[in-house]
Design brief:
It is built from two helices and five strands, in the order βββββαα. The chain is α+β, with helices and mostly antiparallel strands. It has one domain: OB fold (Dihydrolipoamide Acetyltransferase, E2P), CATH 2.40.50. It is found in: Nucleus.
Length: about 100
């Protein structure tokens, strides 16, 4: 069985260094092969060739947390502009509080 990819936001990055995670983020700024995104705090992500990020859109990213707390994007799904980030963050909190139900 594959290892689970926990849902996190920026506040949990330090706990998952060198691990693969899921984050729902809002793209704030694109700069070459990196992007500044928001997930309850700003974080830099390193894009791959298939990343088609659009400023202002939300994306679910699966990526690996680097020691400098940036994220290497492995894959990303465009969720558009209509995302309830309060609900997203509640899911993150609940999935960690009731870990055994989610992983």
């Amino acid at each position: 069985m594959d290892k689970p990819t926990p849902r996190i936001n920026v506040s949990l990055c330090e706990q998952f260094v060198d691990q693969t995670v899921r984050m729902i983020v809002k793209v704030k700024k694109l700069k070459g092969d990196t992007a500044l995104v928001d997930s309850c705090g700003l974080i830099e992500v390193h894009l791959n060739r298939d990343s088609n990020f659009i400023e202002g859109n939300a994306f679910e990213i699966i990526g690996k947390i680097n020691p400098d707390l940036s994220v290497n994007v492995l894959t990303a799904i465009n969720f558009g502009k209509d995302i309830d980030f309060e609900a997203v963050n509640l899911v993150v909190q609940v999935s960690h509080k009731y870990h055994e139900l989610f992983y």
